[in-house]
Amino acid sequence: MAREADTRWFTEARFGMFVHWGLYSIPAGVWKGQVVRRNWYAEWIRAQAGWPEKPGIPKDEYDELLKEFNPRHFNADEWILEAKNAGMKYFLITAKHHDGFAMWPSKVSRYNVAEATPFGRDVCGELAAACKRHGIRLGFYYSHWLDWEYPGGCLPPWPKQPEDPVVRQPSQEAFERYWTEKCLPQVAELIASYDPAFMWFDNWEKAEHLTPGRIEQLIGVVKKLSSSCLVNSRIGTTWNHPEGDKLVDYFSMYDNTFPEKGPDFAWETSATMNRSWGYHQADFEWKPTRQLLRHLVDNASRGGNFQLNIGPMADGRIPAPSIRRLREIGAWMAVNGEAIYGTQTCPSPEPAWGRITMRRDGGKTILYLHVYDWKADAQLTIERIAGKAVTARVLETGQAVQVAREGDSISITLPKECPDERIAVVAVEVEGAA
Ligand code: JFZ
Question: Is CB count within 10 Å lower at the N or C end of the chain?
Fold first, then answer.
C-alpha cells in the first residue's frame, strides 16, 4: 500500500474551505449559561461543558439538541459560492465529528440529521450537489477515532491538563465493534454516496486503538471505492503505523500550525478564523485578513495548502466576521490568484521582505514576489536565481518595475505606488528556468 493517487489538483488548488457544523453549533460554546472554559473549541462542548468540576454532558441531555436542529437559513449554494468567491477551490465539511452525529441520512446509524432532527435533510448531499454545480471539489472530515455516541468509540484522550479527569477508554473488543459496525460502513457510505475527492480523518497522536491493521483497513475501504480519493496523515499514520505517512496522499499539520518547511509531498494547514472551529457565540478574537492572507502565502511559497475554517451558526448562516474576511480574501485573490494557484516553491532562499512563489511557463519562469512591507524605492533581492531577468510588473496594476541582474541575484526597485498594504505582488519574468 503506497501513495499512488494523483494529488496535482490538490496542490494546484492551494486554498480550500473547512466547515465545522453540527449539533454543537446550537449551544455554540455556552452550556447552561456558562462559557465552556477548557478551551475555545465549541465542537467539544459535549465533552467539556462543566469542566473541570464535572466535565461532560450526559447523552440524553445532549440529545435534546436533536429537537432544535432546524437551520432555516441553510443554503448549500450560498456556502459554496462564498467559498468559490473567496478563491477557494475545494470544500471540506464535518460529516461526523467526535460527537458521532452524522450530517447525512446514514443507513448505518439513525443518529443522523435526516432521521433524528426536524430538519430532515441531507446536508452532505446538498453540499455535494452544490460543489458539483459550482466546480468545487468536495471533501469530508470524519472522526474515525473518537466517537462519543456509539459504544466502543474512543473518548477524549485525557488527561492532557492537570484538571482533566482520567478517562477510561473502551476495550479493544468494544472499539472493534464500533470500528466494524459504524466507522468503516459509514466511511464506505460517504464515498459511495457522494464521491468525495478527499477525506480528512482526525487523529493527532499515538493511539493504541488505531492499530496499523485498522489504519490499513480504513485506507483500503476508501481506495477500494475510489482510488482517486485522497487520504490524509491524520488518519494516524504519523504516530501509529511503522510505515508512516508514505501510506497516505497528503500531510495535515497540527491545527493552526505553519511550518517554515513542509514535507516533500502534498501538505496543508487547517486554521480557524478566530479560536473555535464550531461557531462560538463568545469567541470574538477574529484574526485580521492580513494575517489570513499571510498564512495562505506562507504555505503556498513553501509548497503547502491553506484550509480556512468557517463555523456556521445553528440556523445555517455564516457569521458576519467570516463573511467579511472571505470577501476581502476573495478580492485579493481576484487580482493575485495567478501568484498562488498552480505555483511551486522557488529554489532561492526565503527572503526577509516577503515570500516567493514560482511558475514555469514554457521557456520562461515567472517569479511572484509577495511583498509583506512595501517601502517606496526599496531594493528587493532574489538571491541565487538562474535565468535572465526580462521584465517586472506590479501584478495588480501592470505598473512596470525596475529590474536588474546582479551576479547570481536579481533585484527590483519598488515604485512608490503600493497596491495593497497587506501583501502586494510583483511578477518578474525570467528567461530560462530559474
Ligand atoms: C481536532 C478536533 O479535535 C477539533 O475539534 C477540530 O476538528 C480540529 C480540526 O481537529 O483538534 C485538534 C487536534 C489536535 C490538536 C489540537 C486540536 N493538537 O494535537 O494540538
Answer: N
* Cell numbers for 229: 480519493
377 burial (CB, 10 Å; 0-12 / 13-18 / 19+) is exposed
Conformational region of residue 51, where left means phi above 0, alpha means psi within -120 to 50, and beta covers everything else: beta
Side-chain half-sphere of 423: how many Cα atoms within 13 Å? 28
CA nearest to 380, candidates 405, 353, 401, 360: 353
- Which residues are 310's β-sheet partners? 19
CA of 377 to the centre of ligand 1 (A): 44
pLDDT tens, 92-107?
999 999 999 999 999 9
Which of 90, 77, 44, 128 is CA-nearest to residue 311? Answer: 44
Candidate of 255, 257, 269, 308 to mutate for ligand 1, largest count of ligand atoms within 8 Å of Cβ: 255
- Count CA atoms within 13 Å of residue 168 on its CB side: 3
Pick the atom of ligand 1 nearest to 257's CA. Answer: 20
- Tell me the pTM: 0.98
Residues 340 and 425: their CA atoms lie apart, in Å, by: 11
Instruction: Judge if the beta carbon of residue 255 lies within 6 A of ligand 1.
Output: yes
User: What's the sign of the alpha-carbon dihedral 178, 280, 27, 22?
Assistant: negative
Q: What is the pLDDT at residue 140?
A: 99
Strand partners, 372: none
- Give how far Cα 334 sits from Cα of 86, 195, 425, Å: 8, 29, 13
Task: Name which residue sits closest to atom 18 of ligand 1, judged by CA.
Answer: 254
Give the residue carrying C-alpha cell 453540527.
22
C-alpha cell of 32? 447552561
Q: Is 43 in the pocket of ligand 1 (CB under 6 A)?
A: yes
Contacts of 67 (CB under 8 A, 6+ apart): 117, 118
- Type of residue numbered 102: A
User: Which of these, 63, 23, 65, lies nearest to 44 by C-alpha position?
Assistant: 23
Instruction: Report phi then psi at 393, rounded to 5.
Output: -150, 150
> Which of ligand 1's atoms lies nearest the C-alpha of 20?
7
CA 432 vs CA 10, 201, 356, 360, 387: distances in Å: 27, 42, 17, 9, 5
At 2 the pLDDT is: 65
CA angle 121, 126, 130 (to 5 degrees): 160
The residues of the chain scoring below 70 in pLDDT are 1-2, 433
Residue 274 CB contacts under 8 Å (≥ 6 apart), including other chains: 40, 280, 283, 284, 285, 286, 287, 321
Residue type, 339: A
- Choose among 247, 224, 23: nearest CA to 118: 23
Pairing of strands 354-361, 364-371: antiparallel
CA distance 35 to 27: 10
